[in-house]
Amino acid sequence: MKKEKDKEYNKIDWMITLLPLGTIIVLCILFFFMPEQSNTVVSQIRFVLGDTFGTYYLVIGLGVFLISLFVAGSKYGRIVLGGQDEKPKYSFFAWGSMMFTAGLAADILFYSFSEWILYATDPHIAELGSIQDWASVYPVFHWSLIPWGFYLVLAVAFGFMLHVRKRDRQKYSEACRPILGKHTDGILGRLIDLLAVFALIAGTATTFSLATPLMASVINVLFGVELNRVAVTIAILIITCIVYTYSLLHGFKGISILAKACIYLFFGLLAFVLLFGGEARYIIETGFSALGRMVQNFFELATYTDPERTTSFPQNWTIFYWAYWMVWCVAAPFFIGSISRGRTVRQTILGGYIFGVGSTIISFIILGNYSLGLQVSGKADIIAIYEKSGDLYDVIISIIQTLPCAPFVFVVLLLAMVAFYATSFDSIALIASCYSYHKIKDGEMPHKVIELMWCVLLILLPIALVFSDSSMSNLQSVSIIAAFPIGAVIVLIVASFLKDARKYMEEKGINT
């Protein structure tokens, strides 16, 4: 028995496990006891990276998207992530559900309702034209092709590493081995893995801290009470942690069941708003126009830097979003790669775009254009409500209250967000747990104690950020800072995959 414990103990990568733990504890203490000073420092660092090096984020975003199309359409697209005759383990629906919910699904609900409002009040929209023409374009752009391009290119790189090359180190550094060689096992590899873990924690902190206050507001409205939002938010974070911990400890089966439940709740909510909100025609027509305008102006939107800083729109929004998705690239693509066994590279990328991008766009078109329709038709002055309160959570509450059977919608929204968060953090905690091992075979599950530790660790910094009452700008800053070094690592992983895939095809004699 003792030998088994010692064997498990020696398998743990204590540096990758304990150093982030210590850092998170220090950051939590700083945010708890020095909230104003901490937020000021974070904002200053964000300004330097986002304003001075903003083009860096934009180039990586556009480049990765274009590479995803190249890989899917090239000979590399024929590579099976597994044995050549292996079939997918999950149905397209189950696979797509887990993939979609592993990403930023709960945040998608939050931003779908409200993101156009942020742009409608930005002077850049006035430069482009009318709110009707442009306020619904940027949400679709910021949440569709380029963001999912990050996920899907890395997913096939990690899937190739795990299922084809059968490597037993499930770490960011291992994906760089084709280029780094022996340096993967040295200081450079350790640095890459530490950066990945810190980025992972930053991403979870940002997403948990951004949307959970909405859940607290929903609870206050449902029960007709005025509880302290910070206290309720922290309670929700703890409950969500319990749910995703329970699910994770039941393995992929628990994650799959929870993911399917999320999808049913999600599409049920969208269908209700579309069919019974009274804005169906406006929603469909405005959404169709927004898609067309986004496609028509895609490269202009993707490369706009506002060099004269007339509005700083890309610095405030586009760069933040690319950074936000970069830090989530540490966990979500690993998870997508894991569940994509038996699918070809082409099926994984194109299927991801169909299910992931498709579901995201539908959400923004229906929920966003419902509230935009209220604004344009004069049924409700959503912009005035936001300008008066400056609180997006209260604005979303006001929007939902215009729907028939609003209490029912609140309940569905609350359940969907809890389920989405739980599913997202199932995948994150699972991948983080794998990071704690020197080696772990494909399909092997980490020890439940390690999984439990990461489940708790991932919730600490979000609680600290909520407690310190960080503004949206400061929450964005956490992601922008963490994404700066990760961007370079993402480029290295993509280049390594292309090199290794070419070598693999030569070994197998596949030339066309």
From TrEMBL:
Chief site of localization: membrane
GO molecular function terms noted in the UniProt entry: transmembrane transporter activity
Keyword Membrane: yes
Record keyword Transmembrane present: yes
Transmembrane region(s): 12-34, 54-72, 92-113, 145-164, 187-210, 230-249, 261-284, 319-337, 349-370, 408-437, 449-468, 480-498
Alphabetical list of Pfam families matching this protein: BCCT (PF02028)
Domain of life where this protein originates: Bacteria
Record's signal peptide: none
Keyword terms of this UniProt record: Cell membrane, Membrane, Transmembrane, Transmembrane helix, Transport
Family listed: Belongs to the BCCT transporter (TC 2.A.15) family.
Protein name: BCCT family transporter
